[in-house]
Amino acid sequence: RKPILDALSLQPEYLRNAASDSGAVVDYEHWQMPLGRRFRALKLWFVLRRFGTEGLRNHVQRGVDLANCFAGLVDAHPAFEISCPVSLSLVCFRLKDRSEDDQVAFLNAVKATGKCFIIHTKLGGKIAMRFACGGVEQTESDVRRAFNVIASCL
């Protein structure tokens, strides 16, 4: 089963994790309708049915506003730095002047709290953490609470 799944998958860094890489869990990510090609239209249709065009516009803008709120908190904290320009509702950040091992240990400490889940990616060959805003019910207080959880893991 693994050789077939490996041949059919395009696994970006931000979707990689130790449990899936080791085969300890069944990762159903590759057993679904693909993220691209023809099924994008179907997914877009469902989103438009849920929100409508004006609702979708407002939802995207709210996600951008929440991401800018989180980015402001990261910028104001001396231990963090923004890794790349904020894009829509995604903020990539990392610990300032720390090794890659420290970045991974910090990421695992945040996950271990069970209160906030962030994933990693590689930007310019360096690990960065990804904080995505845009949940349907997400609020600014949720973003601030998540940042406090992240900062408490230092």
From TrEMBL:
InterPro entries: Aromatic_deC, PyrdxlP-dep_de-COase, PyrdxlP-dep_Trfase, PyrdxlP-dep_Trfase_major, PyrdxlP-dep_Trfase_small. One of its GO terms (molecular function) is pyridoxal phosphate binding. It holds the Pfam family Pyridoxal_deC. GO terms for biological process: carboxylic acid metabolic process. Gene3D superfamilies: Aspartate Aminotransferase, domain 1, Type I PLP-dependent aspartate aminotransferase-like (Major domain). GO terms for cellular component: cytoplasm. Keywords: Decarboxylase, Lyase, Pyridoxal phosphate. It comes from the Eukaryota. Its cofactor is pyridoxal 5'-phosphate. Signal peptide: none annotated. Belongs to the group II decarboxylase family. PANTHER family: GROUP II PYRIDOXAL-5-PHOSPHATE DECARBOXYLASE, MIP05841P. This is Aspartate aminotransferase family protein.
